[in-house]
């Protein structure tokens, strides 16, 4: 089990909107934590005000591919592997279902058709890569793990895949081949959280981490990035970050982080017109 050093709780009481059901202090996930680390004001718009946003084509592709991979791995886990034709049908069904729930603005109708077809090609490229041997037993697929630690809201993670022997796998879609060193660093918070949750749930250390990159280039590629188990130093850094997250949300610190990515932020206009948090 993981020993997390206790820290003195703050005396301030968070408002109901922060600590209530589905508030940012109801639980902490990797997506919430990463958004907060990237820009606290973006975090405020997304997780406190819950402003509606439009799903981008890239996000839609990622969700559709991820959902089909989940079906594929569930079949393997249950020893009832899906035929390629059946998986293709499910992929298209996921594509349409996601569009119904989260509409996307495409450049043209043909753009959607082209992206859908190419996304299935990306999916097939991963299946053909046999990155996880067909005969390998899987420990878990889309594993939901929760943990209660001192002085923190509950931690929540949904792990894409746990391979035989306790290797944690996370699937990523990317527009171009990532730099492996950069990818390991940028995803380190998420991987550290998954490792912490896995250790809390099983009482043992993961045997390693893997990032499976499905790369959406004209000719799709697959990059499997194998990483060592998360270090104690990374777990300590994560612990510090989790407490800073809680403290800043309680303090209602929505300081922005202006950078060259602001122009593509879904909350750019709201941020420009910022006049302070809603009481």
UniProtKB/TrEMBL annotation:
Domain PD-(D/E)XK endonuclease-like: 28-272
Domain of life: Bacteria
Keywords: Exonuclease, Hydrolase, Nuclease
GO molecular function: exonuclease activity
InterPro entries the UniProt entry points to: PDDEXK-like_dom_sf, PDDEXK_AddAB-type
Protein name as catalogued: RecB family exonuclease
């Amino acid at each position: 089990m993981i020993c997390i050093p206790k820290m003195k709780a703050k005396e301030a009481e968070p408002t109901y909107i922060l600590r209530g059901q589905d508030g940012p202090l109801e639980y902490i996930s990797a997506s919430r934590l990463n958004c907060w680390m990237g820009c606290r004001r973006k975090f405020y718009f997304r997780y406190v005000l819950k402003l509606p946003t439009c799903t981008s084509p890239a996000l839609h592709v990622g969700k559709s591919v991820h959902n089909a991979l989940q079906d594929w791995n569930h079949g393997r886990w249950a020893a009832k592997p899906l035929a390629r034709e059946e998986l293709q049908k499910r992929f298209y069904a996921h594509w349409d279902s996601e569009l119904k729930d989260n509409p996307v603005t495409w450049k043209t109708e043909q753009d959607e058709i082209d992206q859908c077809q190419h996304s299935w090609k990306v999916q097939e490229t991963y299946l053909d890569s046999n990155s996880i041997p067909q005969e390998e037993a899987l420990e878990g697929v889309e594993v939901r793990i929760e943990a209660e630690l001192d002085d923190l809201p509950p931690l929540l993670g949904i792990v894409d895949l746990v391979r035989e022997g306790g290797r944690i796998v996370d699937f990523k879609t990317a527009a171009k081949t990532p730099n492996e060193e950069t990818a390991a660093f940028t995803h380190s918070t998420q991987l550290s959280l998954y490792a912490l949750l896995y250790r809390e749930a099983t009482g043992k250390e993961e045997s390693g981490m893997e990032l499976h990159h499905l790369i959406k280039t004209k000719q799709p590629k697959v990059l499997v990035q194998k990483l060592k188990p998360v270090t104690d130093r990374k777990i300590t850094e994560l612990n510090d970050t989790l407490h800073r997250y809680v403290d800043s949300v309680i303090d209602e610190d929505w300081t922005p982080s202006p950078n060259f990515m602001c122009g593509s932020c879904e909350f750019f206009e709201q941020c420009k017109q910022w006049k302070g948090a809603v009481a």
